[in-house]
Amino acid sequence: MTNYSQATGSGDFNIGALISESLAVLHRALPRFLGLGLIPIIPLIISTLVIGVPAPGNPLPNAGAFIVLMLIYIVLLFVIQGGMIYGAFNELRGQSFSVGDALSKGLARLLPLVGLSILIGLAVTIGLILLVVPGVWLICVLYAAVSVCVVEQRGVTESMSRSAELTSGFRWKILGLALIVGIAGWIVAAIIEYVAGGIGGPTFGALLANLFQVYLISLGSVLSALVYYRLRSIKEGVDIDRLANVFD
Fold first, then answer.
1. Torsion of the alpha carbons at 37, 38, 42 and 43, rounded to the nearest 10
2. How far apart are CA 71 and CA 121, in angstroms?
3. Torsion 174-22-35-102 (CA) sign
4. How many other C-beta atoms can be found within 10 angstroms of the C-beta atom of residue 59?
5. Which residue has the higher pLDDT, 9 or 89?
6. How sure is the predictor about 237, in pLDDT bands with cuts at 50, 70 and 90?
7. What digits encode the pLDDT tens for the residues 193-217?
8. Which of 7, 10, 81, 166 could form a disulfide with 221 if both were Cys (CB 3.0 to 4.6 A apart)?
């Protein structure tokens, strides 16, 4: 197993090392991470099968049902991310985890994670509507909030302020990291949807693209856990065993 602190270098926030180690952690327990990642995708699959996909002249059929399913997706996404953070920390210290254990850890923080998803979603959405830059910057500021909520077991506003404290001084690098992973994921998803859509139609293409989102959700959750660990390692000298003790 690769030693994470050695891989990234002491006192260093290395984007390449973070992506590489996140992929390594993810692939060591890929079936379990994908099993968790499939849960929030279920509303998207239901939306695709029942509501359909946007079409010219009818960009958002059954808008009410679509909005409800998207809200369910967002809440589930945060809860599952909490469980994946637990899984990532266990993998980092060389211990296995089960889907059931990870899910229970996420559900144990259900209320604060739901509150966090609502506040972060509103803040980022308003920022993007008013002007794109504030919304993007808020994503960087709050990048560690879910990890803080799960690992440090803080409340909603405390998790957000703690994330702002941890990400201070590293937000440009976090932005670069998010852009690299986000753009790469978007390109692959677009290719999958285009190729699969040409073979089996737009609904089939959208379904496969949704399934690819399972992998992206898993990677994003593991990456956020490693970023949080790296920030605390740099700023506070905390090692992985001390961080993961909260789950014992």
1. 10
2. 10
3. negative
4. 9
5. 89
6. confident
7. 788 777 877 777 777 877 888 898 8
8. 81
How far apart CA 165 and CA 175 sit, in angstroms, is: 16
Distances (CA, A) of 180 to 8, 84, 97, 148: 18, 21, 29, 23
> For position 6, what pLDDT does the model report?
42
**Residue 44's pLDDT band (boundaries 50, 70, 90)?**
confident
Return d(Cα 70, Cα 207) in angstroms, integer.
15
Please answer whether residues 143 and 167 qualify as being in contact, where contact means their C-beta atoms are separated by less than 8 angstroms. yes
Q: Which amino acid is at 116?
A: L
Cα 224 to Cα 123: distance, rounded to the nearest angstrom: 19
Q: What is the dihedral of CA 215, 216, 221, 224, to 10 degrees?
A: 140
Residue with tokens 């909260």: 246
Distances (CA, A) of 150 to 66, 110, 241: 29, 10, 15
- Using CA atoms, how far residue 220 sits from 5, 33, 155, 177, 223, in Å, is 20, 11, 22, 11, 5
Q: Which two structure tokens, joined as six digits, stand for 179? A: 């852009």
For residues 140 and 130, the answer to whether their CB atoms sit within 8 Å is no
Whole-angstrom distance, CA of residue 57 vs CA of residue 89 = 47
Token output for 125: 């959405």
d(CA 15, CA 126): 28
- By the 10 Å C-beta count (0-12 exposed, 13-18 middle, 19+ buried), 77 is classed as buried
The Cα 153–Cα 209 span in angstroms is 34
Where are the domains positioned within the chain?
14-52+59-247
Q: Where are the alpha helices (DSSP H) in 47-109?
A: 63-92, 99-108
